[in-house]
Design brief:
Layout lengths: L6 E5 L4 H12 L3 E6 L2 H12 L5 E5 L5 H10 L7 E4 L14 H29 L2 E6 L12 H20 L5 E7 L7 H4 L17 H14 L3 E3 L2 H11 L3 H12 L2 H11 L1
Helix pairs in contact: 1-7, 3-4, 4-5
Length: 271
């Protein structure tokens, strides 16, 4: 019960990996502050997570809007946040030249800018106390160029670099920084990104269980590790990518992520 009075702030905590992380914190008696856009999902999360006996507070914010990210910090200025989990993230599928620029800018604002804003604010608070933990949701996508998801992969490269750098800056502060790097996971992310036609998603067996991914991230966070790649296949993918030229990695990703229909058209041309 040592964590009874501690609080974890989790963005994107109503579904997928974020929700599974929230369950793990609740099991360890952390009180929760869950941030997401959808009010009905927040209410559902309150009922489910509150059953564990911890306090669950929900805040509806669209963190792709920078004024709402700053407003969240101001709303919580008098609260002690012991663990910050930057889980909220989005992607969009398609060729960069064709995708809507406003959608891509929203992704950059959410995946990068909101992460920086919240981390800046709550790390300053943690530093004043000399303790705290930060978990940033990266991805194996951050280690490989991603045709058909060019902006998303680039945002996750930022998250990984950012987390690693500030960890080094603050290594003597009492604060730990951990990056969780999952691969393809069985969440609604790909549906929202419009990615269901991608060749990479046609085999359901490649999708990891979000509970397993969350467990890997939670254990790494509590151990103070700098990063964790969830899943053996994802570890192998990153290791192989590190040995190849970026151009070759990008070509392989293009082959894996192109739409099934396009692959069939190419095969028809060759036959």
């Amino acid at each position: 019960m040592e964590n009874q009075q501690k609080t974890a702030l989790i963005t994107g905590g109503t579904s997928g990996i974020g929700k599974e992380l929230a369950k793990l914190f609740a099991n360890d008696h952390y009180n929760l502050i869950i941030v997401a856009r959808d009010q009905s999902e927040l209410e559902s999360a309150t009922r489910e997570l509150g059953a564990s006996g911890v306090q669950v507070e929900t805040i509806s914010k669209d963190l792709s809007k920078m004024d709402e990210a700053f407003a969240l910090c101001q709303e919580l200025e008098d609260r002690q946040i012991d663990v910050l989990v930057n889980d909220a993230g989005q992607g969009v599928y398609g060729l960069f030249k064709d995708n809507d620029i406003e959608r891509e800018l929203d992704i950059i604002h959410l995946n990068i800018c909101a992460t920086v804003i919240l981390t800046k604010y709550f790390v300053q608070q943690m530093a004043a106390r000399g303790e705290g933990k930060v978990l940033n949701l990266g991805s194996v996508a951050g280690k490989v160029p991603g045709p058909w998801q060019a902006v998303y992969h680039a945002t996750k490269a930022f998250v990984l670099s950012f987390t690693t750098a500030i960890r080094e800056e603050m290594k003597d502060s009492g604060i730990t920084f951990t990056a969780l790097m999952p691969g393809i996971t069985d969440t609604d992310f790909f549906n929202k990104a419009g990615m269901n036609d991608s060749k990479a998603l046609q085999d359901e067996s490649v999708k990891a269980n979000p509970a397993d991914v969350a467990k890997d991230g939670y254990e790494a966070l509590m151990a103070g590790e700098d990063r964790v790649i969830s899943g053996f296949k994802n570890k192998m993918q990153v290791s192989m990518a590190n040995l190849m030229p970026d151009s070759a990695v990008a070509h392989n990703m293009n082959e894996q992520q192109q739409p099934v229909e396009q692959e069939q058209q190419q095969q028809n041309k060759q036959s």
